[in-house]
Write the structure tokens for this entry.
Amino acid sequence: MVDGLFVEEDAKLIKKIPLSQHMSEDSLYWPYTTLGNYTCKSDYRFLKEEEELQLNAQTPPICHKRVWKEVWQMQALPKIKYLLWRACCNVLPTKQALMQRKILEDPICERCKRVVKDSELLSWMIEKGKSLELRAYMACTIWNQRNKVRLNLQASPLHQVAAQLAEMLAHFKASTEASGMQVRSNGSRGNGGQAPQAGFVKVNFDGTVFGELNKSGVGVVIRDNNGVVLASCSEKLTQAYKAEEIETLAAQKALMFTHELGFQRAILEGDALGLIQALKSQKQNLSPLGSLVEDVKVYSNHFQRVLYSYVKRNGNSVAHILAKHAISIPDFQVWIEDVPSHIVPFLYSNVTHLH
């Protein structure tokens, strides 16, 4: 029917709109908050962002994918990466930025006594054949030194800056290499969630989008408090939904699958923090996702009790791989007390984290 009434492009967009399972009236919503409710704080933030966009129109931020990739993958302290990210977005409180916001009137640098443009500060980031880590530490050191001079604090002489930053970078690399295995192992702990209390089953869900194929996938795994798999499933959907939409649909399908198997007390766990917060919230959700979130809440009334839990992605790996597996099945597939063979290693890893 949709294909017959609309042109092809419009029909595709319409069919990608997920429909709610219950009747709901249309309503206006505020697009700058998670729940769609208007707040003075969000309005103020919106106006300030608009103002800054106009101020920075002549000096657009660096958006090249290669630059972002190199910045976030370089071997450096998180604060160094964050400084470079802020510099790329033109949000550092430099003289030029503060003058644009009418906070300062004097563009002269306290140390070099010259007018310095932000573009000069950032140009070294994309030079080829240079050590990005070394130059990142250099930028951070110079930034800190200039701030000390500005605040009349003791600063290092210029001829010592290069030696200090080289020593700092060498110390970071040495300590990272020495504790690399420990950092990785510690980072994996606490991300696998906790075992459910007796009488409850844990239902992990996830959704994924196959954009090029115009498909989406849902994965669900149900386990008891010992980590034993009670059931799992993968389902392929015929539309490529948005990421937040497929996560919400996956949560609903996870509850439906759990209820069909006869479980009455469940902990619904996923790696979409915004969705979990929305499910826990008692406030009215006016956002475009509100009706889908309400569907999940309404379906939870079929259970004696449903709890909601957030877990990081590596603690939700089994459900994630089941969602990815959906592209290789006709439409819907169920495994009772089992998972596909290629997921078993991830299952053992999750069980170890649960205990």
Q: What stands out?
A: Residues 201-354 form a domain with the Nucleotidyltransferase; domain 5 fold (CATH 3.30.420.10). The CA atoms of residues 30 and 74 lie 38 Å apart.
